[in-house]
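User: Quick sanity check before I run a bigger batch. Here is a single chain. Can you write out its predicted 3D structure?
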Amino acid sequence: MSDEQPQLQPQVAEISFPVEYQTFAGQVYNQDLKGSGTLSVQYDALAFRFTGHKREFLSRGIHELIFSAADITNVVVDGKAVRFTTALGRSGKSKRPFIFFCRNTDEAGAIAELLPKKLDNDFIASCDFAMRLKQLPGAEHPAFSVTNILIGANIVVFLMMAGLLGAGWVDVTDLTPYIRYGANNGAATTNGEWWRLITSIFLHYGIIHLALNMWALFQAGHLVERLLGRVLYTFTYLAAGVGGGLLSLIWHGDKIWSAGASGAIFGVYGALLGYMLREKHALPRPVYQPLMKSTLTFAGYNLLFGFVHPGIDNAAHIGGLVSGVIFGWICALPLTVSSRTTQMGRRLIWATLALFIMVGIGFVVAPRYQYVVEDELAWQKAVENFAPQEAKFLARENAAHERFRKEEDNAADYIQLIEKDLVPFYAEFGRRIGALNLTPERLTCQRREMLVEFVNIKLDGYSHLLRAIRKNDEAEFQAYTKLEMKASNLLQPLRRLGD
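Assistant: Done. Predicted structure follows.
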């Protein structure tokens, strides 16, 4: 019997998988290829060939990229996505991972098994940092994340301001709700309404203002929340907002009504910078360097944008950023859970002390003003129509007076104008402003007293004018003229008092 030789199975030259280079409307995409393509792996796993359309405008035809095993490191599987580090192509130049998407998670795992298993030291350190960060205590559900709660609170407040109080959805149509319900302003805040330093953090001037701030908070907030812990993160966010508000008071005084979370959000980025300065050894280089770069880029760009474009409260940005760095440095905790538990109380005590010092300095340095905002709002409402109505009456009076002095044929009409229009107009205005409940000895009350005196002088003058017209008495005309001059002179200090 002859020996039979076993038959060798034919080797498969390569195996191919269909892949995608970007999910629909996704932000994660391949730097080199787009659309659909294939991954072909040689049986000896020495070459990996990707085909697809070149990521260029109006590119045509199929393009391919071939990687050797030495060109691929740090393979990561995330659901249906597979990514790896390489020095080839646009991905290598931009230091972005080469990423592609499989049909399902099983296929992604199978492909990962065929790819090289080599890991570099920076990747290992980054994975270790990500694992330690994930192990830190945090919200059990996204709904309980402090960052998400803050975003939700800002959205709810905006809906109330725009929808219920008519503050405006895109542009501010009425500033009154902001003035009444919490915007930061030197005259209002330093007049005992220091709560505005907190409420102003949750007000926004239009949906674009809100969206930009909430996007920036979402980008950095979750990381800083995990690094500092929920309690210290919340403390730092609010303290940075207060710091930005205080510097805005000192910088702008009563010239603007400041609102928005940008000071607190600058504080979040500042806290990240402060944490990295104190706990630099806890962050590996591939984590530390891009975080530092992105933080400085965010701060630098937004501050420059604020200096170039008027109307942006850069004082709040700077105050929030500096406060964030300080509180981020004070509140920085190591990544080990046991150390954080023992050090958190001490960090909170030091942060509270720093907050008291900051608020104390701001309280002393912030300018004070001699008027009350509520008084000014009531005053403006009371006098808003006075000037245009007075101008119309005075034009009629001047015409009637000039005609009477020249021709004396309009005495009855002139008397009727004074008794039916001018005297009731000034008398009613005097009663209206006299009924205002204003704070004594403040500028608004002083202005009211002077204007009441002005009205009384005008009414006294009209009594002389009526007698002058009826009796054609030159002495009464002279008395009327003197009182008119006195009333006019009284308006000069009244205008200076209103500046």
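The two ends are 121 Å apart (CA to CA).

User: Great, the batch can go ahead then.
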